[in-house]
Amino acid sequence: MSASHDCDPTSPQLTEQQAEAVKYRAGHLALSSGAGCGKTTVLSERLIAEYRERLLHTDFHDLRRVVAVTFTDAAARELLNRIRHCAWKSVDSKTNDRLACVWKNMLRGLDAAPIGTFHSFCGRLIRRHALALGIDPAFTIANETLTPTLKSRAVVRCLRHLLTNNDDDLQIFAVEEGLPAVRAMLEEILDDRDAVDLEALSRKNSTALVQKWTRIHREQFLPQELRELKRDLMRRLNVLADLQPDDFNPTARDNWLILHESMESLERFSHKSETGDPADSLNWNALGNVLSRMREAAKIGNKKGWANEEIKKRVKDVFEGIRKRILDFQEKLELARDSLQEDAERSIRLARLAWKTVQEYQRIKREEGVLDYDDLLTTALVLLHQDSRLAAQVARSVDLVLVDEFQDTDPVQARLLEAFEQHAGEAFRLMLVGDPKQSIYRFRRAQPQVFQSFRNHFPDQGRMVLTGNNRSIPELLDVFNHLFEELLEGPEDALTHGPVTPPPGSLDQYRDRCRGSEPPPGPFTLLWAKVDPKTPVEQARRAEARVLATWLRTRLDNGWPIRSSKTPNAPVVWAKPDDVVLLLRTLNNSSIYERELVHVGLEVHIVGGAAFFTQPEVLDLINLLAAIEDPADATALAATLRGPIFGLTDASLLAVTLVEPGNPSRRDLLRGFATGEPGDWLDDTQRSALRRARVLLERWRDLKDHLKVGDLMERVLFESGYEAALTAQPLGDRRVANVRKLIRQARRFEAGGGGRLTLADWVARLRADLRKPPREDQAVTGDEGSGRVRLMTIHQAKGLEFPIVVLPDLDRGLVSCFQKNSYVIRPDLGLVVKPPVDREDSRDGLTIAKLAGEMESRDDHAEARRLFYVAATRARDALVLSAAYDPDEEPNSPAMQLLAERYDCRTGQPRCGIANQKPTATVAAQVVNLPDQESNPTRSPLARPPSSPPQVALVTRVVQEALSDAGSSDAPTDALARNENPNTLDSLSAQPMWLLTQEDVRLPLRVDLDPSNKPDLDPIRALVDRLLRAVFADPEGMFATGSSWPSEPRRVLIDRAARRLGLASPRVVDWVTQILDDDTCAELATELSQAVIVHRMVRWSNIMGDPSRPTHLVYGFADFVLTDSNGRTTLLNVVMDDHVREHLRMALAVEPLQRQLGVRIDRTTAFSPTRKAGRFWDPPPIMVAGTIPPHSTRSESEAKGEGSSSMKEIRRAT
């Protein structure tokens, strides 16, 4: 039910819950909003209403007293755009002159309104009071490029000082961990320095720290662990809920009853810990007796008397799981007292080192005159705490603070709001909007408890909820409420149907119309790829990707009904590939899914994530740059030599390290590479590769101090041939794009350092990124949409919605940060360090390191379930959960464990609720079990050829003649047919291209077929060509889609294109105007007007040569790709002459264009504006080795490879 409110008539209709939140003025407001319930709409409407009310009585300067804080800059821009849109609509409506004047004033004052992130708000606050803080008002903010460099410099400077002064703490850690490990540890601690008070911890007494740890273990850890135990045991018992008493043997039946009776006692203990009673009041001895009784009862007894063997096995597995789980809990009841004191001293020792490093980092920032992003928050907090008079002045300059996504707030930001509330006047108000169930930024120190703490301190009337979901169909809401029941605060927190959602079952009638023999897709699907449980993880993931890709393709081809929009009466349409999104926790393994989707003919667009620094091509370049920068870095040299750039085998590396023949004990890679001769150990190919590596590395090391980092990387890529080789690999276009992105990052890094940063700084920055990868997206290689399935991270998808959401790799286990690092920082425990490797810990209790690991693991599991909630609730019409999973096995991931608790993964039926009541869900999941078809090479009748570059073997002489201006344009066949030069690519050894020197390959590494870049082309002709194509590329110019004639004079449109190119030559403009006469324009415009879809100036690239042989990159662009109403697609190029280059530009473009655009090109044609008649003509197709023109067919002998020898030339197919 919707309700209007007191805002402008152009404002959207709000639900009663939303309108109540917008109107509320009685005090602080904490608005808990479920997924898809319109919290951003409420926030923007509340802000608009506040602005309107203030402008009616004051002026636009009063807007500065209202602060809106968002989580990201993008969210701030969206909020500003919403306000601007509403203001302009109100001005245009002209319903009230006074209100129109108010909206105009709002638009004037909007740019000065404080709308932005916490960091931007604090930055403005610090600049305003910089002198009071003792800070230069002209300070700069260190960006993400400069900050890691400054931190690395601080650690190095601090370690040098401590080593010079024989610091005891450093010496102890250096002996135990090694100095490089200590350095890496301190750099990482700098990133989390605000998570704990390092200064206070460094001065703490070890005994006091032990007492604190003991109290946390007893009062926090054990009660939470008890609740987890109760829930886990209940989940295990519910697995057997479908069995009858007669199915058990007598002993197991009696034990089954004992377990259920004991669960009631365990429930009482758990409830006592949840009510807030002190943990010490729990009778731990009585609890231990209950658990011991349950352990003894979890046995099946006699092997006889069972209904069948399958039931016996199920019960046995459940009982064994119960015994192990109880034993695991009992082992955590006590701390290992004998090691606590030593662990506390180690933590304090590391805290002292970390605090000295922080002080050095602060000194370096003062020297540079910069603050980093963390400083903005902490310095603003200092401002509000150091001077109460100044704090009151600052706080009373603000009347209202609205905070979006408050569940992602960290403790420092929370203390800022508390300081404002403490020093502000009585009129000060807070409006906090968030959803604790969607708190997924723990790696940024966000804590969902912050929202709950603020909410609990607000009065009852200031605690509101939004539950009306306007995104998902009712069947999915039913699934969400049941699956995530444990995340809800109560039944009143469950999602309900919003006013724009359709009634239940609205898509069922359309599902019955789906094609194919398989059941139509339901709103909720469980897709399990059946693999052997012993299959390695990566192999199982590939199997799941194959099954998922084939299933998705089948579903899309058979018809998948979705709503065309979120309106109540929106028409139902069939889903397209761009309606499908795959959401992953990280994109580290996205290439597996991308490759399989491409295999079945589904193009992919990767949107975001943090997988950039895990890509092999990025790692290859980082290793190479490290080897260039530091000739003494043996690790980087070894990785570079055995990597794809030089291609030495492990046996060759071993031979290189042998500096004294006959003495295997003397090995030195650096010395052997620089001076050694491997003798007969290497074959000719490896010896040539080694010589090439020496020459190139020596050359690049000589250049590293004379070239900018970006220029050096460009040179390295060109001289090594690595970039061209990448194009021949699977997903080559993305690999090349990632390499190019790394070069752009290097140039930005140099620019951010003002010319003072060197290759050594860049390598240090890259190594820091490898240790703690930033959330850096892979390079984008195609437009979002355009018939592409999207892959993105769950964090990237937050706040978005999609018709069909697929969650693959759902059973992926978690890796705690304590498993990767040697320390952990927690606000409760402080800084905890792992014990030395050689220390033998007591088996009689829990060490502090294990306690920290358990607490980290529990927090990770809780966030993983919230992440699951965020991902699932992005779905509008359908949700698909996919995994390489056997429903009869124990799940690995928190998401799968939750799913197994709430649904029977074999049948899809919902299980009992949390309190063992009836299931809250009425919608069952559709379960699909598919075996992996890896052994079947065809895999699927829908499978299309993989989207890899075409393999084209060319003869050297032929290509040289065809791509030069020496060839006769009247007889291109002769240039293509001759093969007089025996030095073909086939005569070269079959080795990777990057192992060849430029003397081995006489063809140009990259061939540009851009008509404007023809060799020896007259400069004026080149400018004419560029201007002509700029005119063609203008989507609003004389050749606009759907128009048969330009709406503006021809000369005006040509002049506009010339200005865009920066051309000021009247001669060129006159020449183009003469070429595009009325007849020419009319003919081409008529052809374009018949197209439904027009792609203009599409860049493409093609590979010449088999991947195992030398390869060359040929690239160009297609002028037009046209699709008519019948679905036929035409490649149309504008050709100024009939040179063979133009024939090649058309022939080599077909396959990559089909791959990029996801279409089949049915026809190729050319348009020559310089001809007086017959401007449109179809060139004879050119057969290129390894490619088939779209209108030709392969003979049986060619399909078997018998025609391969004749296809090593480019020839006319007539």
TrEMBL record:
GO terms for cellular component: cytosol. The keyword ATP-binding applies. GO terms for biological process: recombinational repair. Residues 12-473 form the UvrD-like helicase ATP-binding domain. Residues 474-799 form the UvrD-like helicase C-terminal domain. ATP binds at S33, G34, A35, G36, C37, G38, K39, T40. This is DNA 3'-5' helicase. It catalyses: Couples ATP hydrolysis with the unwinding of duplex DNA by translocating in the 3'-5' direction; ATP + H2O = ADP + phosphate + H(+). Belongs to the helicase family. UvrD subfamily. Its EC number is 5.6.2.4. It comes from Isosphaera pallida (strain ATCC 43644 / DSM 9630 / IS1B). One of its GO terms (molecular function) is ATP hydrolysis activity. It is an enzyme of class 5 (isomerase).
